[in-house]
Amino acid sequence: MAAWLLATLVAGAGVYCLLVVIACWHYKRVPPAQHAFWEPVSVLKPLAGIDEGLEENLRSFFTQDYPEYEILAAVRDPDDPAIEVFEKLQREFPHVPARLIVTGPPPYPNAKVYSLHMMVQAARYDLLVISDSDIRAEPNLLRQLVAEFQAGDLAVTTVPYRAVPGRSFWSRLEALGMNTHFWAGVLVARLIEGMQFTVGPTSAVRRRALEQLGGFESFREYLAEDFVLGKRAAERGMKVGLSRHVVEHRIGSQDFRANMRHRLRWARSTRRSRPAGYWGELFTFPLPLALLLLGVEPSWWPLALTAVAGRLIASISVAGWVLRDRWTLERLHLLPLEDCLAFLTWLLGFFGNEIEWRGRRYRLHPDGRFELIPKPASPNPQARARSRNPSTGKVRS
To answer: Per the residue annotation, which of 51, 80, 226, 339 is the catalytic one?
Structure first.
């Protein structure tokens, strides 16, 4: 019985791999949009501390080949070291309008959403490009995004990324998974039902569409605010897209424990954002399923080998064809290890309702909302006094 069940799952995983290849073709068959006219753009950059390669990441936005745009950055603390990096680039590129907002402590769980809310209030333009601090873009990013919005009636779009790891082995494994497993799932979802969500650290949205959805403050209690943004837009009948441009996601270096915390946060938040889809992810693990099948019934090795070949072809299609990522193609021999670790993380995602994010612990709710778990009160009065940092909302031009 167990062998037949596993064989069914392996066969289903093989069908999924075929869908991945078809989804890649479906995505690539649409030619890149051509611009009609250049409208001004507001780029929103939430910052918190010094990410690996932060200066070069930000510089890639100060050097966009685009006639009219502004950059807004937001930090929580006036002593945040990211401020010095941003102000250095302001001096280096005085012709690019750039402003820094010190928000103070967020009044609700999602600090990033609060930063985005503050930046939207200060932004001048209708088209908003939201990009995390660990994103590095090519000079034509804004040109491509504006062309896509001009070509149709887009309300919001996601920009695909190829993950670039840091020095640690575990970050290399995670980048391999992002560039094969994660984006394969997004492309298949797009093929089957169209884009019903947004994901990832770079997206763009019309201000008027955002206002119709309740503004960023309406996402303040959700961990996966990017996913909810696209989901709400699709539910309201707005058009959600997946850009033809690809950026680099510099994920940095993490040791094993930090990497597992990150994976678990992602898994647990995904399970609550789209519970049915999370169960369906079982079919996205052909290699672990094939290994389990061989362990139960070794004579069914041809089926297992077919699943392995399917995973390899699907990975090449996503990483090589869609993301144009040579780094991943040269490390496909690590796929079995990454897939087994990802499968374990998927299983662990069914358990527990707490996550750790930027040094703080949060409790997840079944509907995707989350709340901060308060730290024990400090017995030191001076420490309590230092922790009081009222919101300033100060803008530095």
So the answer is: 226
**CATH number of the domain bearing residue 342:** 3.90.550
DSSP state of 320: I
107 pLDDT more than 80: yes
Strand order in the sheet with 98-102: 239-242, 154-158, 202-206, 127-131, 41-46, 69-75, 98-102, 394-396
- How many whole angstroms separate alpha carbon 149 and alpha carbon 35? 9
Q: Provide the pLDDT for residue 387.
A: 35
H helix runs in the chain, sequence order: 2-28, 54-62, 82-92, 111-122, 141-151, 169-177, 183-193, 207-212, 225-235, 256-273, 275-280, 286-296, 301-316, 326-329, 335-348, 381-387
Buried-state track 93-114, b at ≥16 Cβ within 10 A, e below 16: beebbbbbbbbbebeebbbbbb
396 in any annotated domain: no
Record the tokens describing residue 48, joined without a space: 């918190």
Tell me the pLDDT tens digit for each residue of 174-231: 999 999 999 999 999 999 999 999 987 999 999 999 999 999 888 888 878 888 899 9
180 and 68 Cβ atoms separated by less than 8 Å: no
pTM, 2 dp = 0.88
Domain hosting 127: range is 1-44+60-69+107-353
Q: How many domains does the chain have?
A: 1
User: Cα-flanking dihedrals φ and ψ of residue 248, to 5°?
Assistant: -100, 130
- In tens, the pLDDT along 285-307 reads 999 999 999 999 898 889 989 99
Q: Could you read off the pLDDT of 302-325 as tens digits, one per residue?
A: 998 999 999 999 999 999 999 999
Active-site residue, 226 included: yes
Q: Looking at the domain assignment, is residue 358 inside a domain?
A: no
Residues 253, 343, 197, 258: what is their CA dihedral angle, to the nearest 10 degrees?
A: -30
If one counts every other C-beta atom within 10 angstroms of the C-beta of residue 175, the result is 23
* Positive/negative CA dihedral, 17, 22, 23, 29: positive
* 256 domain residue, yes or no: yes
Identify whether 382 is part of a domain. Answer: no
